[in-house]
Structures are given as C-alpha cells and as structure tokens.
C-alpha cells in the first residue's frame, strides 16, 4: 500500500470491504473453529485462539498507526504484557519505570517474580539512573511514557540508545500517548504495548491489548504465546476496537484540547496544590514531551488542598466526571489511584515512586470543556463552602 497519513490508515488499512459480499464494513467472524478441506489444509485460520480474520484486520491497522511492521491483538493490555514477559527466561532482570499502572506492577511482583524474573524499578526519566540499572544487564527495559498516574516523560530515543548497547529489549507502553501523539518504534523502541481498552477502543466497552514491533522474531513469539497461553481477544471485541480506531485522531484532538483547558483551570485554583500535565510549561519533563510527542494526551493528575477523606468525598461528587477505574473513553472519569487503580502497589512502594496518597487522576473526555470546568468549579466551591 502507498504511504498514507494517520487519519487515512485509521479508516482504510486492514478495513477493506468484504470481497465475498461487498459489505463496506468487514463482518464479525464469531467462530471458534474453521472448516478444513483436508487435515491441515485450511484458508489460514484453524482455531480462533490462534487467529481470526477480525484479529488480522485490527493488527494491520494497529501496525500501520504505530509505523510498525507487525501487531498481535491480545485479550487485554495485561495479556500483551504477559506475552512480552513470557518471552524472557528465569533469572532475567526487567528494569521498569518506578511509576506505572498498578496492575503491571502486580503482574511483575506477584506473578513473574515467582518464576525467577526480577523487577528492578528506576525513574526512567532520569538517564543516569537508567544507565546505572543497565549495568545489571537486564533482558528488558519496560517504560511507560507518559506514566500512569504521574505523567512522567522518558526520553525514549536516549534510553533506547543506551539500552541497545547492552542488547536490552526496549518496550514502551504507549497507552497514554496513543499512536496519534507518539510513535516509540520510530524513536528506537523494539516493542510498543497498548491497552486498547483505553483510547484505541475509545468507548469504555471492551477490554483489549496489543504488542507492535518491526522484528519478525518478536511477532512470531507474540503469536505463539497468544495461542499457547490463551491470551486472545474475542472477535467481537477486536471488531469493536477496529471501529473505535476510525475516530482516534479526532477524539485525541478533543481530549487534548479539553485536558489542556482543565490543567490550566486547576493550575490557577487556590484549592489545588499541584497539577501534573506534560503540556504545561511547569511540568518537569515538558521539553522532552514537546520534542518526542505531537500532543500531550487527555490525562491530568492533581493534588488538592483537602484532607484525604474529604478529598475522596469531593471526587465522588461530580456530575460529569464519573468516579471509575480506567481511562481513554469519550466520557470523563475521575480516579483515586492510591485506593483504586494503584491499590495493589504497597504504600511503601507508592511513596518511593513519588505517588502521593492524595493524588487524583482525571481522564478528560470529549464533552464541551466549559461544562467540564463548570462541574469542577462548582464542586470545588461546594466543598470549600463546607470548610468555611
Ligand atoms: N498499561 C497502562 C498504562 C494502563 O493504564 C493499563 C490499565 O489501566 C494497562 C496497561 C492494562 O491494560 P488492561 O486493563 O487492558 O489489561
């Protein structure tokens, strides 16, 4: 196919009309198995745990958006990370960002450590710390950038350059940025991971994940591990993800516009102690974010000047921000990481990662930003009035 731009790939690549019927939208192949003409002779699919046309369609789209050659669709973001870490062997070390999704931390610590895979956490936005950790000869460097929930930014090109001197595989969880705003493979990473549950699906109605790479050997292992470990999505979820992706670019523009407006509103409010958003000039890694991303995404974190228990009531009181785990859907959500998405990280470790107990994470949706700001302002006013 000719090189095309992002918005065109999102709609056409992997999404050609069905050759048998002309159906403009590819059908959903809800089948577990496939007829064979002769034992072993089939049309490329034998069992849906190993492959399905809806996975193939989605994988073609995902690979094109990340400027990669290959993608494998998984049951969830954690399914994709499970496959990636299962490529390692007992005795291997993984270096990962200090600040990362609580479920990823739990997978490393409570599952893979039992099998002899050691997790070493560093602040990957600190190049010296990364350099030092590489002396341990890790098999894998696993980065979130921006991180969940503190939105720290790692200079992907620089850390990939350092890691490759040690033959360390570099994987970037690109869930927060999405391929619309950041392409880690083009910056030197070997693997990109997404929880497609989030912005790629975009409508809070599926769970899915993917692993994208330019390396045939990694793609082969990803496909093998999906089949061997049962990490496949359902064809319907893969189809819904393909549908969601068609509007990814448009949604991300609006998510980012709203997130910037909310970050600026919060930054000037007297009841807000600190705002974390890579698009703000006050963000510690704003310069790196500007250089390696074409936009800053839709997640804003903040600390408020309320006692912890009052703050919890405050974030449960919005009209438009629903208190819920997850992120990246069209609707705005609010989360308290310490008791929700990151509760599986022990308090001691959260402290080391610099994750305050009072941190609040907003997944800013694509509603009208003035309505969202009004909701925040009114709820803040109600809680301030109660203090007076
Ligand atoms: N990576 C990041 C950055 C996430 O935020 C999440 C989930 O919140 C995951 C991975 C895991 O994805 P899933 O919930 O699809 O397994």
Short description:
The chain has 388 residues and is α/β, with parallel strands linked by helices. It has 14 helices and 12 strands.
Describe it for me?
- With 388 residues, the protein is an alpha/beta fold.
- Helices cover 37% and strands 14% of the residues.
- The chain contains 14 helices and twelve strands.
- The strands form two sheets. It has a seven-stranded mixed β-sheet with strand order 1-7-6-5-4-2-3, with helices on both faces. It has a five-stranded mixed β-sheet with strand order 8-9-12-11-10, with helices on one face.
- Helix 7 links the parallel strand 5 and strand 6.
- The longest helix is centred in the middle third of the chain and has 20 residues.
- The radius of gyration is 21 Å and the shape is globular.
- The model has no long low-confidence stretch (mean pLDDT 97).
- The site of pyridoxal-5'-phosphate has 14 residues, from helix 3 and helix 4.
């Amino acid at each position: 196919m000719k090189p095309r731009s992002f918005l065109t790939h999102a709609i056409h690549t992997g999404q050609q009309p069905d050759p048998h019927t002309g159906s403009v939208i590819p059908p959903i192949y809800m089948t577990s198995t496939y007829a064979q003409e002769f034992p072993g002779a089939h049309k490329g699919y034998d069992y849906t745990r190993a492959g399905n046309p809806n996975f193939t369609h989605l994988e073609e789209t995902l690979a094109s958006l990340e400027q990669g050659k290959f993608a494998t669709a998984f049951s969830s973001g954690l399914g994709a990370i499970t496959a990636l870490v299962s490529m390692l062997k007992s005795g291997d070390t993984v270096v990962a960002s200090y600040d990362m999704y609580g479920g990823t931390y739990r997978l490393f610590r409570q599952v893979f450590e039992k099998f002899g895979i050691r997790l070493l956490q560093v602040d990957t936005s600190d190049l010296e710390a990364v350099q030092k950790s590489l002396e341990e000869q890790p098999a894998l460097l696993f980065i979130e950038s921006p991180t969940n929930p503190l939105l720290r930014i790692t200079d992907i090109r620089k850390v990939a350059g350092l890691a490759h001197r040690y033959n360390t595989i570099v994987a970037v969880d690109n869930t927060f940025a999405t391929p619309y705003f950041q392409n880690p493979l083009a910056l030197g990473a070997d693997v990109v991971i997404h929880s497609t549950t989030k912005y790629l699906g975009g409508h809070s109605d599926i769970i899915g994940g993917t692993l994208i790479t330019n390396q045939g050997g990694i793609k082969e292992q990803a496909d093998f591990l999906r089949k061997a470990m049962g990490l496949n999505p359902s064809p319907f979820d893969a189809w819904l993800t393909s549908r969601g992706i068609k509007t990814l670019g448009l949604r991300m523009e609006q998510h980012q516009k709203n997130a910037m407006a909310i970050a600026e509103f919060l930054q000037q409010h007297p009841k807000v102690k600190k705002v974390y958003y890579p698009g703000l000039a006050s963000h510690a890694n704003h310069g790196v974010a500007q250089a390696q991303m074409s936009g800053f995404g839709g997640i804003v974190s903040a600390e408020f000047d309320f006692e912890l228990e009052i703050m919890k009531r405050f974030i449960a009181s919005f009209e438009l921000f629903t208190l819920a785990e997850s992120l990246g859907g069209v609707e705005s959500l609010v989360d308290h990481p310490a008791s929700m998405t990151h509760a599986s990280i022990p308090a001691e470790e959260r402290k080391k990662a610099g994750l305050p107990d009072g941190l609040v994470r907003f997944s800013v949706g694509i509603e009208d930003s003035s309505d969202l700001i009004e909701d925040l302002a009114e709820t803040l006013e109600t809680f301030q009035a109660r203090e007076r």
